[in-house]
């Protein structure tokens, strides 16, 4: 079990105080159905797991707040192998960075292509193998009036939120 990463998933309700509707949460996977949960402001629902050996672990959730609804994947084991971060334009002093873990098979690869005027350069920025350390990763999904946010920092939710989705 040490080679398979441990992950924590948390769905947190930040629905406005006094809202007529509570947040209804239904999460699961192909093998696990966690059922419907009702969350009020400040409440959360969480679970943890280890990724499976073949790397295709998938968990999903549907959040419903009154007439608003959003369904999405909260963890997808293949996220780490086929990421395209798209094109970025950087000006002097700016940077672009990301965090990741090497995969179980040991063939993690990230590459970049830099273009500056007529100049172009492609190169591997990371080509490595499994680091053999147990790791722990947090995925905290926060639902509020505007939609759904993601944080990977359980100690400081309000400062480290990334907006993901508006309500449908």
Automatic annotation (TrEMBL):
One of its GO terms (biological process) is rejection of self pollen. Keywords: Secreted, Self-incompatibility, Signal. GO terms for cellular component: extracellular region. It is found in: Secreted. Pfam families: Self-incomp_S1 (PF05938). Belongs to the plant self-incompatibility (S1) protein family. This is S-protein homolog. It comes from Phtheirospermum japonicum.
